[in-house]
Write a structure and sequence with these properties.
Low-confidence stretches of chain B: none
Largest interface: A-B, 24 and 28 residues
Helix content of chain A: over 70%
Number of helices of chain A: 21
Oligomer: heterodimer
Largest sheet of chain A: none
Radius of gyration of chain A: 24 Å
Structural class of chain A: mainly alpha
Order of helices and strands of chain B: EEEHEEEHHHEHEHEEEHH
Number of strands of chain A: 0
Number of strands of chain B: 11
Structural class of chain B: alpha/beta
CATH topology of the largest domain in chain A: MetI-like fold
Radius of gyration of chain B: 18 Å
Distance between the termini of chain A: 32 Å
Number of domains of chain A: 2
Helix content of chain B: 25-40%
Mean pLDDT of chain A: 86
Shape of chain A: globular
Shape of chain B: globular
Chain lengths: 538, 232
């Protein structure tokens, strides 16, 4: 999973109608409140039980030098990925903020897509461009220059920048668009040039926005697994997630896996906590079409802006184009493992999306009605974990009773539900609050409760964010490669796992064809849910 | 009879006390400066705010713990009285059955209420397609259907012009006559209180004073009310 920190960036700003109302005095939540509290307890158990299993098994264990190398590499690569993606995003966001050109709107929309792009597909695309016999190396060879290798730290960084640059661009662009038009006009009336604009308008904004952007990407990269599984490895480039995977799958050293998982939880919790404190909610969609009232400077600055946009676009599009070109011919001749795996992935995605959406809605409605530390905590705690951490814990729990393989899919559904819930909760909470502020008293005074309230108030008013959230959950779950890698045998593999295996075996054409199917299904699920929500919206 | 028995309401550091009763079917204007606690008083009667002290009783029964929807109360808010995603007819239907499983008899009653309030033909419309006056009529039509013995009006007509406000007050009187409801109407305007007829509760300085005949009150206003009304 792209990890919980992204949830922070998904939150939509509180709609203007959301006034603060005093807590309702009567237990009006009635069944709803009790149900939400039960759900919160189940969710807490779902996260805490694996953590407890990890703690019981991993305490008193001394991690070896290789493990500490993994810890160091995890932090180093995440910090570098975050730094590079954030720095590179600044000129791109700036160019998008102050230039108008054909296709700008499409480009901004496309910048939202990599968030839903399965990491295994991104890796495959990057191999096609930066790999041993990829586009870049062929050009370098033709020029008589030494070739580069995408494996190791460099490759991990390229992949993480590829996956997170668009997110960073969108968050920073939001910052640019949030500079009040009045201040821009004041600057113009004072005759500010580009240097003064930077110093008095843009730099203060960046200083406020950039720490949050960097932290969000840091948290995402700390728990990245699929990228490191293919491009990393070996003593020099193993992350904690990968080390956990190897400890379980190859060494069957569950105590070590548990110890590593414990370290991972501590690191993630600290980073997520920092991100939670620093990050301002940035919009995921609305308002990015607006253009800042800046006068776009001409001259060499125009060239720099053009270069930034072109370079970013090529960097983001070429790998995907390469996957598409490589994958299309093989569509007619897919490996037999692909279609059953696609079916399994669909089942996993739809089930976990349905469960997550209903659960997140009930939790958000309950909190909108009366604040609850229990529910807030339950909906936030998964941010401190990762797919491999929860997977290891669940592995430890089920392993004495049944071969873990037999419960691979249910476990994947559970883990995906836990990890996507914070996203959906953060999407739905502002909407639920606005609903409560606008129509809570009216509904209460009319005795609109229970199913009637859901049917006549909640579903019609929240159809759009519900559809959007369900789409996000389905697409993320569809493309996730995490816990499933610990559990699955050939008969339980999901599509991302099959793609990873094909990539690992250098069957790149077949992997590309399977990737096309995965990407198509992921975006189709997102689109179907989102469009369904829009249509149902009153 | 609605009885406020040593009632004290608290919101943050604001307190309002009231200790009086008013007969069923009475019409009472609630007047006073903004921020004095007029809306707070109505919110407590409607069940949105628990008394910090004392009781609210209807026909001798303590309303504490009775959820808003089950109180003998219909309340009209300043705004948001209709659900924008439902039709006018559906909004009215909620007054009969919150699950909107409406029988043909219910439908007939809704049609009658639509006619009665001058909204003929507007049943299938959404609230966004109504004028402000029509929206107020629809909210009153639902109050007519609910026919609860207490009708609370929290300045629902504040955004309307004087002529429309007078029309709405006339309709309120008709609805109250038909349902026999006790009306408590918050207003800023002494003219509204006079037009409603009946009694007036003056709210100021953290106290909701006992209801007094409106005409008598305005003939000889106490100093606080005189200060509120300003020089004639």
């Amino acid at each position: 999973m792209a990890s919980g920190a992204g949830a922070l960036t998904l939150a939509t700003p509180t709609p203007p109608g959301a006034r603060r109302l005093p807590t309702p005095l009567w237990g009006g939540a009635g069944g709803g409140g009790a149900l939400a509290a039960c759900l919160a307890v189940i969710l807490l158990a779902l996260v805490l039980a694996p953590l407890a299993a990890v703690a019981l098994r991993g305490t008193g264990l001394s991690l070896g030098p290789a493990d500490w190398a993994a810890v160091r590499f995890t932090v180093t690569q995440a910090a570098l990925s975050s730094l590079i993606a954030t720095v590179l995003a600044i000129p791109v966001a700036r160019a998008l903020a102050r230039r108008r050109f054909f296709g700008r709107g499409v480009l901004v929309t496309l910048m939202g897509a990599p968030f839903l792009l399965p990491a295994v597909v991104a890796v495959l695309g990057l191999l096609a461009v930066f790999g041993r016999s990829g586009l870049l190396n062929r050009v370098l060879e033709a020029l008589g220059l030494p070739t580069i290798s995408i494996f190791g730290l460099g490759g991990v960084l390229v992949a993480h920048v590829f996956l997170n640059l668009p997110l960073a661009v969108r968050m920073i662009l939001q910052g640019w668009l949030s500079i009040p038009a009045e201040r821009v006009r004041l600057a113009q009336s004072l005759g500010f040039g580009p240097a003064e604009t930077l110093r008095h308008l843009e730099w203060p904004m960046l200083r406020e926005v950039l720490p949050g952007v960097a932290l969000v990407i840091l948290v995402i990269c700390l728990t990245s697994f699929a990228v490191v599984l293919t491009l990393g490895g070996g003593p020099a480039a193993t992350t904690i997630e990968l080390a956990i995977y190897q400890a379980v799958r190859f060494d069957f050293d569950l105590a070590r896996a548990a110890g590593l998982a414990g370290v991972q939880v501590v690191i993630c919790a600290l980073a997520a906590l920092a991100a939670w404190k620093v990050v301002r909610p940035a919009g995921f969609g609305a308002g990015l079409d607006r253009q800042v009232a800046f006068t776009a400077p001409g001259g060499w600055r125009k060239l720099v802006d053009g270069a930034a946009i072109t370079a970013a676009t090529l960097f983001l599009i070429l790998p995907l184009l390469a996957v598409a070109l490589r994958g299309v011919p093989g569509l007619a001749d897919l490996p037999p493992s692909v279609l059953p795996a696609a079916l399994r992935s669909m089942v996993v995605a739809l089930t976990s999306a349905a469960v997550t959406t209903v659960a997140a809605l009930l939790l958000a409605l309950a909190v909108a009605r009366r604040p609850s530390a229990l529910i807030e905590g339950a909906a936030t705690l998964p941010l401190a974990t990762s797919g491999l951490v929860l997977g290891t814990g669940l592995f430890l729990i089920v392993q004495p009773y049944t071969p873990p393989m037999t419960v691979a899919l249910p476990v994947t559904i559970l883990v995906n539900t836990a990890l996507t819930l914070p996203f959906l909760y953060r999407i739905l909470l502002p909407q639920a609050r606005a609903l409560q502020a606008d129509y809570g008293r009216l509904s209460d005074s009319l005795g609109l409760q229970g199913w009637a309230r859901a049917r006549w108030l909640v579903l019609p008013r929240l159809a759009q964010p519900l559809g959007f959230g369900a789409g996000i959950a389905a697409a993320l779950s569809m493309g996730d490669l995490g816990a499933i890698a610990l559990f699955a045998g050939d008969q339980q593999a999901t599509l991302p796992l099959v793609i990873q295996q094909l990539t690992g075996a250098y069957r790149l054409e077949a992997a590309a064809s399977a990737s096309l199917i995965l990407v198509t299904l992921s975006f189709a699920l997102f689109w179907a849910c989102d469009a369904g929500g829009r249509r149902a919206a009153a | 009879m609605l009885q406020l028995d040593h009632l004290a309401l608290r919101q943050d550091d604001f307190t309002l006390t009231a200790d009086w009763s008013v007969d069923a079917g009475q019409r009472v204007a609630v007047i006073g400066p903004s921020g004095a606690g007029k809306s707070t008083l109505l919110a407590a009667i409607a069940g949105f705010l628990a008394p910090a002290n004392g009781k609210i009783l209807w026909l001798g029964q303590d309303l504490a713990g009775v959820p808003p929807g089950e109180r003998p109360v219909t309340i009209l808010f300043q705004d948001q009285n209709l659900f924008p995603h439902l039709t006018v007819a559906q909004n009215l239907g909620l007054g009969l059955r919150p699950d909107l499983r409406l029988s043909p008899a219910d439908q007939a009653r809704i049609d009658a209420a639509v006619q009665r309030t001058g909204l003929a033909g507007l049943g299938p419309r959404r609230p966004a397609q109504l004028s402000g006056g029509q929206a107020s009529r629809a909210a009153l039509a639902r109050a007519l259907l609910r026919a609860r013995p207490i009708l609370l009006l929290d300045e629902p007509f504040a955004a309307l012009g004087p002529a429309l406000r007078a029309e709405m007050l006339a309709l309120v009187r008709e609805v109250a006559d038909e349902t026999g409801a006790l009306v408590l109407m918050v207003t800023h305007d002494p003219a509204d209180a006079l037009a409603l007829g009946g009694q007036t509760v003056f709210v100021a300085d953290a106290v909701a004073h006992p209801p007094v005949e409106t005409l008598a009150l305005f003939d000889a206003p106490p100093p606080a009310l005189r200060a509120y009304l300003g020089p004639k």
